[in-house]
Amino acid sequence: MLIPTTESESWQRELSTMNEGKEGAPFRYSNCLIEGLLFMKCAFKSPFRMAEGIAKRLFFLAGITEVPDYTTICRRMKALGKKYYKERKKIENEDEIYAAFDGTGLKVFNRGEWMHTKHKGKRKGFVRVCFLFDIKTGELLDFSATTEKVGEQNKIRPMLKRAKRNRNIGKLAIDGAGDDYRNFELIRVLKIRPAIKLRANANPYLFSKRKQRNIEIKKYEKWGYDGWARRRNYGQRWQAEADIACFKGYFGEYVFSRGMSNIKAEIGLKAHFYNQLRLG
């Protein structure tokens, strides 16, 4: 990790801007400095106390003598993470994007499955995280974190509406979890071309009101799976699986926060760091 020797000057300028017109106690540390510490914590999968210790040595070499303690890092992480969880990058007049939707689960603790089985502890479950990736660049366009009781199907439409407002989504690939007539109708309204895998026993004549899905089923029956996948370029959906593997490779397969609000803040922060690592 490279820290320019002049970086402390930019941190001081940012800190001055943050404190302009602020009521109450002023900020002592800039957002960029806190983000740097949180990146080390997420990337090294270290506790807050270890992040503080690493920072003391690294920032001493960079000429920074005052470093935030672990409680300050934890408190600022919640604020920054919630900000990144809600914000999405908006780009005007960009090329058409082929997006892919997929979901995964993150453990809420890191004790290991053997410990859980050996001591027969209460199952803590996992956090369900849904992602929307740009297949070409690997950019994370949108994401959502929820409990395991909420299925991926319930997150497709809200995420797609939000992503379409900010980005030029032209085509969408989803595995069998997206085979719902409501998804096809929304895609038609948003003028997005579908690449959604259909069920093998899908019947185009069962429900007459599900027009858009029935049209896709008839094409699927006419072309067969191989022909449909080739025409829809469905094979590129695997890139979403690779992107999720990168996300877990960067930050691990678990979350260190407790409470859904804090977990969402952590996911938002990791999503921000993921895009920085993938896009440079």
Structural class: alpha/beta
What percentage of amino acids are in beta strands? Answer: 5-15%
The string of secondary-structure elements, in order, is HHHHEHEEHEHEHHH
What radius of gyration results from the CA coordinates?
Answer: 22 Å
* Low confidence ranges: none
Describe the structure.
The chain is an alpha/beta fold. It is built from ten helices and five strands. α2 crosses α3, α3 packs across α4 and α7 crosses α8. It is elongated and about 70 Å long.
List keywords for this structure.
280 residues; alpha/beta; five-stranded mixed beta sheet; 10 helices; 51% helix; elongated
Briefly say what this structure is.
The chain is α/β, with parallel strands linked by helices and 280 residues long.
List the helices and strands and how they pair.
Elements lengths: L6 H12 L12 H14 L3 H14 L8 H17 L10 E11 L5 H7 L6 E9 L5 E8 L5 H14 L2 E6 L6 H9 L3 E4 L14 H22 L5 H14 L8 H20 L1
Parallel strand pairs: 1-4, 4-5
Antiparallel strand pairs: 1-2, 2-3
